[in-house]
Structures are given as structure tokens and as C-alpha cells.
Amino acid sequence: xxxxxxxxxxxxxxxxxxxxxxxxxxxxxxxxxxxxxxxxxxxxxxxxxxxxxxxxxxxxxxxxxxxxxxxxxxxxxxxxxxxxxxxxxxxxxxxxxxxxxxxxxxxxxxxxxxxxxxxxxxxxxxxxxxxxxxxxxxxxxxxxxxxxxxxxxxxxxxxxxxxxxxxxxxxxxxxxxxxxxxxxxxxxxxxxxxxxxxxxxxxxxxxxxxxxxxxxxxxxxxxxxxxxxxxxxxxxxxxxxxxxxxxxxxxxxxxxxxxxxxxxxxxxxxxxxxxxxxxxxxxxxxxxxxxxxxxxxxxxxxxxxxxxxxxxxxxxxxxxxxxxxxxxxxxxxxxxxxxxxxxxxxxxxxxxxxxxxxxxxxxxxxxxxxxxxxxxxxxxxxxxxxxxxxxxxxxxxxxxxxxxxxxxxxxxxxxxxxxxxxxxxxxxxxxxx
Length: 433
Known about the structure:
32 strands, globular, mainly beta
């Protein structure tokens, strides 16, 4: 999910259970959402779509993630079931499909064209687009990185003119799910005059071969991309020796942090934040353990383990540890003004707590400050946080915060909730739509 605040306020959402892309115009006076664009495949787009542009196309089958260019005029969407990445551009206020790329292993796709007939879209010999999931914009804004979950690769696609240009792929990455793309901290701290184009990108890729919690080998792999090619900077694993450095040209370019971190098992959502003091953190949310694990980013682009906090569902014992399976089932996370927001899809609530609960939990005199939860209710009533798993009626999935508003998507229900944020970061439900 992405929020565009350049000019007119828009909310871009992908990743519902129905595999659709939706774009809403936001009324800044009352935050009401008007759907202006819908794209999907094989589902009925007509209900509640008055005034919205509708696109029923196999290009968007299983829409999973979406990112925007910095000026808000282009969007790039991954299609988990179409094995494609699609680019849309805003043209005279209307979103149009500009280009798409497909994984080279797939059967050529035949789609309807305007005026009748069909067009066969040829495949390119590309890697990194088989069951694509996460999409990340490069720091320069001139390319996107796409995690090819079924390809064990991450593809780089250029955003030149009105096309998507395949620029190569980074392979042998186990089932990549999410990507954080940042400018190298080394260049940022040592070369004050470095330009965006000269600054190497660093990717932090969350992956692992299993989607289940009983055989997971979640890993975070850091990649340094510079003039000399790709370097594996670091591998951090949820199990001992789950990541090896056999392909590294120099063993020092691949450092295995053999921590066997239980909080990484089932890692699903990732977030990056910079504190007011300048400290940088990467956070990983676990759907299996209900944990948020923090890593501090050093000036050499490596990550140091910084702490873990376990989100406890209201009906669980408060004394459970990070090694116990979670009823919360965290999916995506967001950090905004020093507050972490985590979507507990299985628990049916949103957890919110200060970043320090993860990075310095032992120093907190009153651990209750870390226990904030708000309920989500598909009917919009939000009368009470679920008291057991059978009482869960809504499944929060994606989150984005802008200003004093938190947007939350419900996966199964296909809805969007708008929360007002108090001065201390506590969300209060405004409406569900």
C-alpha cells in the first residue's frame, strides 16, 4: 500500500485476498475514500464501483504489492499469479497501463485489445518475475527492485521514459519476499558531494524457502550494488548455518550472523526507520512468532541485532516468549513518529508500541507501555478486541501512516480502515469502507 500526497491525495492498495489493485481519491476534509481505479482478474469489479475506471485483465492476477515514483505519476504493481510486473502512468488524471514484463519461464499471455481481437505478449528471457511479491523503489527513483519468490532472484527494472526496462537479476536468493532498498550508508557518510546516481544501492532482502511455520529458514541477505558488481554483505538467519557464503568472491564479503533468531521464523513484513538521533533500524515482523525484531544499520551497511519484542494476543498469557507460536500472526508493519504499528491478521487487531519496546525493552520501567492494541471490526463498530481466535471478524494486513492518519487494509474482507492518530500515536477508528 502506498499513499501519494503530491497534489491531490490518493491511496494505492494492492494485496487483498482477491488479488486486486485499487486507487482511492482521499477527501482531505473528512478522509472519505472515493474509488477511482480498479484492476484485477476474474472477480466482479462492479459492486460499489460507481465512477471508477475498471480494468479486468490477466495482467493483474494476484496483485500483491505496489510502489509509486516520487512524483506520484507512475505506479508499479507485482502480479503474484500473472508472473508479471505492470507499470501504470497517470495521464490527464486517468491511470493507464503503460507497460509490463513477464517472467521468461511463463507461457506467452494472450489478452484482449481495444476494438476487438487479442494480442499475444511475448516473453523476455528474464529472471526474478516468477510469482513476484515485494516491489521496492530504488533510492534514485529511476528503477524498481522486484522479489521473484518462485525464481530465487531479485530483478531490477528501469523506469526510463514510459517503459519498464529489464536491467538484470540477482540470483541464488532463497524465496525472496520483501525488499528494502537504501542508498549506501558508507557513501552517505564519507562522500558529502555524492549524487543520487553515484550512490550505490544497498538491498536488504527478506527471504526463506518455506511459507509454513514448521520448516522455516527465514533469512535477511544484504546486497551491496556498486561499480564492481554485486557483493553479498551479510546473511542473518533464523536457524544456524541456514545461509552459506559459497558464491562470495571474498569470504569477508559474506558475514553469517549465526544467532539462530527465533523471532525471524516466518518473517513477513519489513520496515525501515530513522530515529531523531540518526539511528537507522530495519524491523521484521513474524507471522509465526508474533515478534518484531530490530536490526541497527551500521555505517558500513551491515546490520547489528538490536532486540526483539513479542506482540501478545489479548487472550494469550502475558508471559509467553518469542519461542512460542503466536496467535497474533503479524503481517506488515509501519513505523511512524517513533511508534511501531503491526497488523495482527490472525489475531484481528492492530498492535502499536514505541520503537524502544523493540530496541531497548529491558530498560523500560513499565512494560505496559508496549501492550497497546486496537480492535478492527469488519462492520466498523470496533466494539472490543477479540477475546479468542473464534471472535476474530477482520484480518488487518497492510498499513501506511501519513500525518495524523493511519490507513489499514483488511485482507479477507477487502476493506480499508482509516484511523486518526492521537498525539501519543494511539489509533482511533474513524470508519471502515
